[in-house]
Amino acid sequence: SFMEQVAFQLLGYGTVRILVNVKSPVVGEGQQLTRADEIEQEAQPFLLLYNPMSVIDWDNDEYGHMTMVRIKEQRTVHLGAKGHGKLTKFLQYDTDTVKTFEFLESQKDLELVNVDEQAHGLGMIPMIVGYYRKVKPMIGSSYIRYSSRADVRKFQAESDLDYDTYIHAHQTLKAKVKGE
């Protein structure tokens, strides 16, 4: 299921962003972290798939290594008698820390509800960036070959608007046009 979602995003956008997230286990002062502590606190690494449209900013150093990434998450929350509101969460990862900013929008109000900064201690941005590329062409001709090509073209055509918006969203992205 997870790899299917990755494949659909690769076909539609041509790129995929996967964040490797780890909960920081709580350890008392002077104690060492054990494997049992990790399991008990569910401090295992897990993968989060982000739509490329959710990654709103990033920066690379001169060697092409990612030094910062900003992610935007949105969801609707129930506010009791006030109805519903939109919770917008911005995550900013750099090589040492993750900063979180949460805003709650309800009717006409916009309120900053949470600001947090935690060290992740990885020394790098925990994000995997993947790109779509063909490994080798299909050989021969058949109805299945033509059908699969048509399906891929249809899927890409349906997401062209999102893809075009994504390509022009950041100045460091460059699209290579056939024949250039």
Description of the molecule:
The protein has 180 residues and is an alpha+beta fold. The strands form two sheets. The chain has a five-stranded antiparallel β-sheet, with no helix packed on it. Strands 2-1-8 form a three-stranded antiparallel β-sheet. The mean pLDDT is 78. The protein is globular. It contains four helices and eight strands; from the N terminus they run αβαβββββββαα.
Fill in the keyword field for this structure.
180 residues; alpha+beta; 5-stranded antiparallel beta sheet; 3-stranded antiparallel beta sheet
Amino-to-carboxy terminus distance: 38 Å
SSE succession? HEHEEEEEEEHH
Main beta sheet? 5 strands, antiparallel
Please tell me how large the radius of gyration is.
21 Å
